[in-house]
């Protein structure tokens, strides 16, 4: 069977206050604010995209911010932790930065030979910084974080499952992942053995079922190079009885969705056309961008959305 999937494309989570979300991810963490648009299925709700300078797959973190949303609960059948990759030499910098802004974090630990620290965003979403010398992707900085210490993109994600072997079978048989490491009930899979591609599955039979809400992940998307490979991937997924959606145009990529046996929503997304399709790279995220079907309702949609601004150096 030919290899179709190249790794993680993006991760989408649920959040609360939109401005607080921008302040945390572009202000505190320094991710580039790539796109300000709306939820295609609920245009009265923002859809924010963050990532590296160009919004390349493996760096893209997106949010649906619902003001006043009830917090969810991490547990089985859910992607519970998102880990970012930063240079090994940045450990002291990030510990000091989190302390400066009163973000609680756990004392550094080691996993698969690399140090990491764990913390949460203001909505309770589980995050980690992994300090590694194995990531040669370029960083991005607005200038308030030294470029040499900046986030490079994702490092890994962590999924809790009651029956981990069923999810593992989907990754290996359908999504072109291989088992690359195992440690203490944690099984690490990847389409290629490098930071930005790792999917860790934890066997968590004694944990409660996760509940969707603020501070939880809505879905994880895996990357496909083009529409031809996506069509083939859809046939592959359908043949296993997983009932994938039709191909849906998301403006910046095309997508199909299905649930793996443990309940996590998986997406298969094309790498193109990318975020420069409707605004130049140097101005990404500056204006509210709407899908064509909503453009005639622009004024009404803008009036329904809370105004937000990007001011990365002014995190409080």
Give a structural overview.
- There is one protein chain.
- Helices cover 16% and strands 34% of the residues.
- The protein is built from five helices and 16 strands.
- The termini are far apart.
- The chain has a single domain, classed as 2,3-Dihydroxybiphenyl 1,2-Dioxygenase, domain 1.
Mean pLDDT: 95
CATH topology: the name is 2,3-Dihydroxybiphenyl 1,2-Dioxygenase, domain 1
Proportion of beta-strand residues: 25-35%
Largest sheet: 8 strands, mixed
Segments where pLDDT lies below 50 for 5+ residues?
none
Shape annotation:
globular
Break the fold down into its secondary structure elements and pairings:
Elements: E1 7-15, H1 18-28, E2 32-39, E3 42-51, E4 60-65, E5 78-87, H2 91-100, E6 109-111, E7 114-120, E8 126-132, E9 153-161, H3 164-173, E10 178-183, E11 186-190, E12 198-203, E13 217-224, H4 227-239, E14 248-249, E15 254-259, E16 265-270, H5 298-304
Parallel strand pairs: 1-4, 5-8, 9-12, 13-16
Antiparallel strand pairs: 1-13, 2-3, 3-4, 5-9, 6-7, 7-8, 10-11, 11-12, 14-15, 15-16
In summary, what is this structure?
The chain is an alpha+beta fold and 316 residues long.
Protein traits:
alpha+beta, 2,3-Dihydroxybiphenyl 1,2-Dioxygenase, domain 1, 34% strand, eight-stranded mixed sheet, single chain, 316 residues
């Amino acid at each position: 069977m030919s290899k179709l999937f190249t790794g993680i494309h993006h991760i989408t989570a649920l959040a609360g206050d939109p401005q607080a979300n921008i302040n945390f991810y572009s202000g505190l963490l320094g991710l580039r604010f790539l796109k300000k648009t709306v939820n295609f299925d609920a245009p009265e709700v923002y859809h924010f995209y963050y990532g590296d300078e160009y919004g390349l797959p493996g760096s893209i973190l997106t949010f649906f911010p619902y003001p006043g949303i009830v917090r969810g609960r991490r547990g089985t059948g859910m992607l519970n932790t998102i880990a970012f990759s930063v240079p090994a030499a940045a450990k002291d910098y990030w510990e000091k930065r989190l302390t400066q802004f009163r973000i609680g974090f756990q004392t550094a630990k080691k996993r698969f030979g690399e140090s990491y620290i764990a913390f949460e965003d203001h909505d309770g979403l589980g995050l980690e910084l992994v300090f590694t010398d194995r990531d040669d992707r370029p960083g991005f900085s607005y200038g308030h974080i030294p470029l040499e210490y900046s986030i490079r993109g994702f490092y890994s994600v962590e999924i809790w499952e009651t029956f981990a072997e069923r999810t593992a079978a989907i990754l290996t048989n359908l999504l072109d992942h291989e088992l690359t490491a195992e440690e203490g009930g944690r099984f690490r899979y990847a389409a290629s053995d490098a930071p930005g591609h790792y999917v860790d599955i934890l066997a968590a039979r004694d944990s409660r079922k996760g509940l969707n809400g603020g501070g939880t992940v809505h879905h994880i998307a895996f990357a496909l190079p083009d529409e031809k490979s996506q069509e083939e991937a859809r046939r592959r997924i359908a043949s296993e009885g997983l009932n994938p959606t039709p191909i849906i145009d998301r403006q910046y990529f095309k997508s199909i969705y299905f649930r793996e046996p443990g309940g996590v929503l998986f997406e298969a997304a094309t790498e193109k056309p990318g975020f420069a399709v409707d605004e130049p790279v140097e101005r990404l995220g500056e204006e509210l961008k709407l899908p064509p079907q909503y453009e005639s309702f622009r004024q009404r949609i803008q009036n329904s959305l809370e105004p937000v601004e990007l001011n990365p150096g002014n995190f409080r």
